[in-house]
């Protein structure tokens, strides 16, 4: 079930991303300049078998104005994947819920 986690500063977020990815989780960073669509990222993920431990899947949504190139590079170096929702840039307030809906649909959560 989707949960909204605490707000973190950049340094704490990068450390959390590295820990999450090292333990088998997936972290997606929404970015307007990303080349990979979120749907393509979902296709490449291995979802856990029913009854096994759930996959930790996190979506990072930046502030209005976007995530800086330095922050993006640091998140990618920590193991996060930058993805885009589509051809149009969304406001921060919309991007997170839209991403969760796309991921829930793609994972079969609503079937």
TrEMBL record:
What reaction does this enzyme carry out catalytically? uridine(1498) in 16S rRNA + S-adenosyl-L-methionine = N(3)-methyluridine(1498) in 16S rRNA + S-adenosyl-L-homocysteine + H(+)
Identify the main location. Answer: cytoplasm
What top-tier enzyme class does this entry carry?
transferase
Q: Which GO terms describe its molecular function?
A: rRNA (uridine-N3-)-methyltransferase activity
Alphabetical GO biological process terms: rRNA base methylation
Tell me, in a sentence or two, what this protein's role is: Specifically methylates the N3 position of the uracil ring of uridine 1498 (m3U1498) in 16S rRNA. Acts on the fully assembled 30S ribosomal subunit.
UniProt name for this protein: Ribosomal RNA small subunit methyltransferase E
